[in-house]
Amino acid sequence: MSLISFKNVGKSYGEFKALKDINLDINQGQIVSIIGPSGSGKSTLLRTMNGLEEINEGQLIVDDHDLSNPKVDINKLRKDVGMVFQHFNLYANKTILENITLAPRIVLKENTKQAEQNAMKLLEMVGLKDQANKYPSQLSGGQQQRIAIARSLAMKPKAILFDEPTSALDPEMIGDVLNVMKEVAGQDMTMVVVTHEMGFAREVGDRIIFMDSGQILEDSNDPKAFFKKPKEPRAQQFLSKVIGH
Amino acid sequence: MITIIQEHLPQLLTGLLNTVFSSLIALIGSLILGTIFALFEISPNRLLRFIGKAYVEVFRNIPLLVIVLIFYIVIPMYIIKINGFMAGSIGLTIYTSAFIAEVIKAGILSIGKGQMEAARSNGMSYLQSMWHVVLPQAFKVVIPPLGNQFINLVKNSSILAFVAGADLMYQANSIASTTFQTNQTYLIVGLLYLILTMPLSYYMRHLEKKITN
Q: B117, A93: Cβ pair inside 8 Å?
């Protein structure tokens, strides 16, 4: 059964149509990469999946929550759908450990000890156990992004949305973040990743969504074949520019 | 000058104590009210936004004295009897809260939108995100302007003298009119206000340094 389901979804900012007639079903455990040129609506599409952007048309159901219904309890949905941002957005006033334990304590009502034990396990997984008591500003971008992934995982979500998780990083840092993402992908997590990392999309992803001007132009369940030769001319053109150099 | 202090020490101390007490009430009250109305002003709800804006615009554009007199004369006439001290302190609280609301609003708006989005995406409600993530950062940013508001508040508490609030200024008026030593009396009172505001000013600066480090 699909975890995320778009039916004829549209989204506009005034006159500008950011998303046009989106139809998309994402199954539990899938690793979906959304690629495409800037301004094509990739991030907007991702952000509708946890209600950070509202939709104007069609129906969007995520984990049995109908996001087209304005009365939906969005907090309940967000417990189960984590998000990792381009600019990390760690809580600047909290230590690394507190960043990870805050939501589990407040939202899941875990006690502090339990939340901290779980957080330390996650810190070990992302390789940053020794940074637990530092503040986000004391960490490098790549370290912050790994913490942001740990913070999402601490809520034990069904899916994690990644919004260009490596775009703000130094090239050297990207590998560490991608390795953590690969590890998460190996744990049967549903992942939707807006990315410019074609290597990740090809090697780790189960599925490629190619978007341009607010539409899904190509939806491929075979990333390797897609990267060899996409069906759509626009996707061919895009790939030749991205991979060509 | 010494003789005035010697002869009127109890009166001066009572005044000083009332000024401190009234300032403390207004400081805590206006911080709470100011935060609430700042949250109203940036709320996603239109009605709350309107209430927040209306509150701030009305109370920061009316002279403090008028607000205090409303509580001293009008409210006791129709609603509930309150003494000069309380009327003055409530008026001071409301007047100051309008300015503090603007300061805190600016602080909240200075915090990147990503902090709220991250907290919401983490499953926290709007208010939980505000309370645990955005507000603590906003308060840090606004400590210097908040310090200014607090110092103004202590000095503005001299408004209690108009409504028989028994504060420092009220005692000064009373001592001056009985001893006719006007210059010296007000000089002493001026110094006493300095004793209150200088440490406050110093403390706010200390807090600012401590937090930015």
A: no
